[in-house]
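Known limitations

Files may contain more than one protein. Parsers should not assume a single record per file. Below, a two-record file is shown to illustrate correct handling: read the sequence, read the token line, then continue until end of file.
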Amino acid sequence: MRPLRPFPTALLAAVLAAGLAGPVLAQAPKAAPPAATAAVAPRPYPSIAVTMPRPVADPSFEAFRKQLGEIAGRKDRAALAGLVAKGFFWAAAQGEKADRKKPGIDNLAAALGLDAADGEGWEALASAAADPTLEAMPQKKGVSCAPAAPAFDGKAFEQLLKSTRSDVFDWAYPALPDLPVRSGAGAEAPVVETLGAVLVRVVAEPPPAGAPPAGPGAPPQGASQAGPPGAPQNPEAAPPLKVVTPSGKTGFVSADAVLPLVFEQLCYVKDASGWKIAGYLGGE
């Protein structure tokens, strides 16, 4: 399954401050983990706390997500068309991709890949429907996008990128508190450190012997295979990831136990008739 993954709008301020908005949109892959630096010396770096987004306390949004999930389960394109707002937008790496000559449902289908034979697009829609978080999109009044991004100190992150000579693709954060970092790729390897809710650097590492390949069908780094980013659900979906912790220790974590800072989002708007799908952020 391909969960949703462009740049999160809440992260945009930090990205803009670091001068990375262009690279983030231009380089974000659709079905691969964020790029990791090939050679990273295990040095300590400042710890930056991360606050996870909270679910939206709006019963109408919960009902809308349930309806959207049911439509995704049935692969009901006609019913989905009724939930697409007029003026549907599609902001991708190259800019606006929505074809104004086509109905919104056609643009949404193209963005998500609803016509894919393997049903990947409908699975992505179901994943979006399962996420209870929202964040406002500053560029469009009244529009909110999901999944929401975590909150952290953007200025501190900008300095971290400079001091470590890294980019936003090299960083992730734990899906759950108390993430064990192990000395080896095996699940039984000793724990060298336990991470809390902080940013962690991911580094390139050849897959361990016998590990399943992380090919085009593998989920993005840290994304669970069903539902929104959150608790790990398939620890064998991708090889363990090598990380450097803020203390400078190296180790391995489950690929499903961390979440990327770059991911796609589905956007919504609420009008007099209820919630509608307003647009999509991501894609090549």
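...continuing to the second record:
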Amino acid sequence: MMGDGRADLHGDEDVVPAAEEADPSRGAGAGERPLADVGRTALWIALLPTLWILFGSRLASFGTDSAHAYWNVWRVGPYTLPPGSPDAFNYTPAFAQVIYPLTLVPWPVFLTVWSVLLGSALVWLLWPLSPRWRWLVLAYVAPPALLIGNIEAFLALAAVIGMRHPAAWAFPLLTKVTPGLGPVWFAARREWRQAAAAVLGTAAVVAVSFAISPELWRQWWDFIVDAPTPPTQAGYPPLALRLGVAVVVVVWAALRGRRGAIAVAMVLAMPLWSSGILVLLTALPRLRSGDSTAGRRKD
């Protein structure tokens, strides 16, 4: 299932493609620097103005895009606000029920805890990168992810954990739904026990949640079925097409043991597209560390 990846996970080897591993002979000239070093330097220089623009435009709305909807879900009631409106809650009742205890605290406390959890997930996901890239990537990824407060980092985390513990795929299946592609991976590899664990683990959560509040599940279904396509999605390919491509990508990757492609497929399968979905790609370092030992399809 998962590769050993000890060297990668301790940062001793660079997961980033090796343009930065220069030929020693190139160091003879003072002006000759590896292309990756030049690119990294340029990105560090661009970081400050990038963050200045980001925080200048988004700091006043810190967390209100997504995190506030999670905190406020039981105050206004799930599925009472129309899709696309501020604080609209689009996820299954199971997610709302799981986070209920955290919603009882004041908003500043919730936002602090939520931000720490998101930030910790991102650090863990990106830690396999060499230090030369790790902190730069974090500096670009973490601020917008925390400002928005959406669950993409947790989806990436679930994808990584789900390769060893398939029941973790319940999280994407019970939140964004369509990026929950783990069972497809396992089925394509004929790893039926893992596929069953992912499906049955999700079904068990649904069963408990439904027993607590069947009416909420009916409301969620009506909410999802009747939801119009937001205007922000008008220029993107339809979800049905993207989901079909995502399934093909996962099957292809599963047959070749390329776990990193799961993150790309999840991006394709996200129900709504925005720049924030690229946070899912933070799963790549951890997923790719096991590519060499994932192997081909089991017969």
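Parsers that stop after the first record will miss the second one. For reference, the second record is described as follows. Residues 35-58 form the longest helix (24 residues).
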